[in-house]
Write a structure and sequence with these properties.
Elements: E1 6-8, E2 11-13, E3 17-19, H1 28-36, E4 41-43, E5 47-48, H2 49-59, H3 67-95, E6 100-105, H4 109-122, E7 126-130, H5 142-157, E8 164-168, H6 175-183, E9 189-192, E10 199-202, E11 207-210, H7 221-230, E12 237-241, H8 247-255, E13 260-263, H9 265-270, H10 273-288, H11 294-297, H12 315-321
Parallel strand pairs: 3-4, 3-13, 4-6, 5-6, 6-7, 7-8, 8-9, 9-12, 12-13
Antiparallel strand pairs: 1-2, 10-11
Helix pairs in contact: 2-3, 3-4, 8-10
Length: 324
Amino acid sequence: MADLTTSYLGFKLKNPIIAGSCNLTGSIDKIRELEDNGISAIVLKSIFEEQISMEIRSIGQDAMAHTEGYDYISQYTKQFNVEKYLNLIRDAKEKTDIPVIASINCISDGEWVSFAEKITSAGADALELNIFLLPGDFKKEADTIEKSYFDIIKAVSNQTNIPVSVKISSYFTALANTIFRISLSGVSGIVLFNRFFQPDIDIENMEVVAADIYSTRRENSHPLRWIGMLSDNAKCDLVASTGVHEGEDVLKNILVGAKAVQVVSSIYKNGPLHIKKMLDDLNILMDKKSFFSISDITGKLSQKNIENPEIFERVQFMKYYANS
């Protein structure tokens, strides 16, 4: 049986499968069930500043006309939600034996730092910055949006002594350059990529609805491509997220240079027991290929290490189908 241990954010993980941030990592009972089925680390359900603000507005509707009352409700609601999250961190640290990575998503500059400080004090092993600034404002230039990412990373990194990772989308003008510069910013890891709410159209009822909330295996080709292209030069750990559903998907991402993978949709679809199946299948595949350890094969098929490195680049699509 192969050695499945790997390293991520400076931690030695018993295998490369991490539970990504979701409702499954939002309660201690569910977290322990994931651990019992073989998960190597968990990213706690993100605490969203925007969600807290929406709750404050909802609760405080009747108090809007009374400044003192609204201020009290705002402060109480915020403190309640933050303290609830900090207690989740403390419980997870006390009742599990795997790394606990907190996750935050904020909309105001000061709260990134404030949340990070509280999370560090609560004992989280690491912090994942769940950053997504939708580039939908036609008045904002790419440089302005990118600068916001680096400002957040710098502000948080200066206020915490735990490892920091960044989960980003692929919505950048020069994605490779941005990822490389983020890897130089002092973060310990980058998670590729964030998967967001996607809209769809219900023609029958003529309304905008949510598209499928779960990823498919086909979607994994996107992070796989970019990790394969960037893992040789990135100055921090890269982790694959989106479309990792089977043990085979885990192995593919490790081969192109990922240190680990984050899994969510496959657990939702198949239950926590599926983690064991993924690990069993990963072991079978590694034994079949005579791979003795994860560390020995990490990046074995990255762009630098394959005979035809251009295969990762978009121009190859045109080359394959130009004569069809």
